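Quick sanity check, CRISPR-associated Cse2 family protein:
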Amino acid sequence: MTDTLEPAARKRPKQPRKPEALGEHVASVVDDLQRRYLRQESAAIATLAQLRQAVNAEPGTAGLAAVWLPDALIERELRYDRAEPPRATPSERALHTAVTLFAIHQQSQREQRMHTPGTTFAVACQWLAAVRGNDETVHRRFAAVGTAATYAELVYHVRNLVTQLRAAKIGFDYGVFADDLCLFQQGRALNSGLTGADHVRALWGREYWRASAGPTRPAATDPDTADPSTTQE
């Protein structure tokens, strides 16, 4: 599949997707962690290390405030099974996945922001392919994301791409990403007639193939780490 957009259409600015309630919470969490990590605060460094270790754990088992949802979001969708302890909700699972993957993404990046609002996961992957010279390896891995049959399989393939994005210093919007992860877990048909998983697959596919083929991407520097002589109060 190829991008048939005319060059002028490719350059036309598009309104970036905005995070919803869950995404706004995730964006707030990772933005705070990111800022403190880039300032080399020991507490933030330790928190990200704990989050990386918790990437395969169940939501809520890491014992970290960063992986808990605010009460308003929990009350909206929490459900209980009489025969079992409370199960993780789609929002809780999406939050846990997004925050722990961010911890992997930001690891050792002391000057670059890996949470970059306005850039979706799929667009970041297209940029990764572009800077590698249209790397077929990236295309195959992204295709594997698109064919993931389960949430666990999706996360496995996304994690592989996140490590490559880290090496290329390419970030993406973890707020919008969390919303997509939550939607992927919704089995019911949407207004479009698609399940949540099919909707996310279609959305990411469009964003990936319509993204600019060039390697240009927004700068990922943090103003808190900029040279004080070049910043204004």
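Posting the structure with no commentary besides this: Residues 21-38 form the longest helix (18 residues).
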